[in-house]
Structure formats: structure tokens, C-alpha cells
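FAQ

Q: What does a record look like?
A: Structure on top, sequence underneath. For example:
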């Protein structure tokens, strides 16, 4: 199930409903892209037709951000819980370990993907990490060959959005994996080079507030949230 938030499609399901659907796609070999949707991306997509097309054409659009939940509430929609990019990746890895589906990590600074892979092995014993590749290899044919030789079912790409999603869309027809997710800074979080917000902030949907306390320069970006919600309120009144 999907609902539109200011013209962008967003899945209404939670983790437990989404995970079986994703793994079904592996069995049927239906290549699928998972993108994280937050208010910042929705606002950018209004001005950027290419980004809007990219987001709406993805097979899965997860509601990553409390702003998307609030927007759905305003328009009396069905989205009730956040599905964050990093947690979606972790849930997919947990399921992949149980189902013996190999994964591949591509992106990040040299050494980060390997450290992230070590952390995943620690978290999910039995996980098959078919390979890793940092984001600094310039020869794209080498990257594609390395991924294809490893034959993973799931590919996680950490380049920042929308660069990672564009890379996936440009290359997925010639890549072996079935499931693709752009995961931004998730490798850094797993590798321990970037600290995630404490669990209390995560559960309350206040990771943005924790990051704001750590990086006050993010205030300008956070001010976009009330404007986003006002726009949602206006557009839902006009329906």
C-alpha cells in the first residue's frame, strides 16, 4: 500500500510487513530499489523533476522521518510508523542471515565497508557478506565486475542521496543483485566512525533533534519541516 505526500509515493507498511515483500522479490527475481523518504527530499523533489521521477519510480519508498508520519496524520493517511534507512538495512541483514541470502556493501571511505561488514557478522552470525568495495574506485567496470562475481542478492550502496539511487538506476540492469538500497551514512554508523542518536531519541522520533544539538548549523535545514507541514495542511484542505 502507498499514499502520496505532496506528490511523492510513500509505503504505508511497517518493517514486519515490508520485509517479507522484499524477500519475495528475491525469489521472483524482480529487481527493486528501496529509497528513504523524508520531508527534505519531498521538498527538493518539488523543484527537481528528475528527483521526483527517481523517488516515484522506486519499488519501495520507506517513511524515514517523523515529518512524513506527521504529514500522513494531517492528511488522514495510513502511515503510522517510521521505517528508517539504517534500521531497514539492519532488518534486511537480519533476515538475509536467516535465509542465507548473500549481501554486498559498496561505498564509503576505504576500510569503512569492511568494518561495517565485521559489525554485521557480529550482530547476525551466519550472515553471508559476499564482498565489500569502497566508494573511491574510479573504474566503474571494476566495481560492477566485483559485485557480479560475488553474486549477492542484496546490494547496499552508501554514497549519499540521490547520488546512490542514481548510480543504482544507471547500473542495476547489468548487476546481479535483486534488492538495492541506498543507505547514506549507515556504513559509518555500523563501523563506529559516526555515532547514532541514543535509543531514547530514536524511539521518540527525535534523531533530528539530537543531530541538531550536535550540529547547530543544521538549524536552517530543520526549519524546512514546519514549512513542509504547512504545505501538506494546505494541499489536504484543497482536496
Amino acid at each position: 500500500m502507498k499514499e502520496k505526500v505532496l506528490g511523492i509515493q510513500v509505503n504505508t507498511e511497517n518493517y514486519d510487513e515490508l520485509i517479507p515483500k522484499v524477500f519475495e522479490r528475491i525469489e521472483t527475481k524482480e529487481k527493486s530499489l528501496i529509497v528513504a523518504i523524508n520531508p527534505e527530499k519531498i521538498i527538493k523533489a518539488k523543484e527537481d523533476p528528475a528527483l521526483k521521477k527517481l523517488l516515484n519510480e522506486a519499488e519501495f519508498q520507506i517513511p524515514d522521518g517523523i515529518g512524513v508520519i506527521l504529514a500522513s496524520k494531517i492528511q488522514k493517511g495510513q502511515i503510522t510508523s517510521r521505517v528508517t534507512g539504517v534500521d531497514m538495512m539492519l532488518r534486511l541483514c537480519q533476515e538475509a542471515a536467516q535465509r542465507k541470502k548473500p549481501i554486498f556493501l559498496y561505498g564509503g571511505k576505504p576500510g569503512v565497508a569492511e568494518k561495517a561488514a565485521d559489525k554485521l557478522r557480529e550482530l547476525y552470525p551466519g550472515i553471508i557478506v559476499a564482498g565489500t568495495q569502497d566508494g573511491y574506485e574510479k573504474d566503474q567496470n571494476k566495481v560492477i565486475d566485483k559485485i557480479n562475481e560475488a553474486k549477492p542478492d542484496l546490494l547496499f550502496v552508501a554514497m549519499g542521496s540521490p547520488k546512490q539511487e542514481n548510480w543504482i538506476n544507471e547500473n542495476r540492469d547489468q548487476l546481479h543483485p535483486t534488492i538495492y538500497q541506498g543507505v547514506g551514512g549507515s556504513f559509518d554508523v555500523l563501523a563506529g566512525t559516526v555515532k547514532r542518536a541514543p535509543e531514547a531519541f530514536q524511539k521518540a522520533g527525535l534523531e533530528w533533534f539530537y543531530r541538531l544539538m550536535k550540529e547547530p548549523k543544521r538549524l536552517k535545514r530543520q526549519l524546512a519541516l514546519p514549512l513542509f507541514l504547512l504545505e501538506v495542511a494546505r494541499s489536504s484542505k484543497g482536496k
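Q: Is there anything notable about this one?
A: Residues 1-83+202-239 form one domain.
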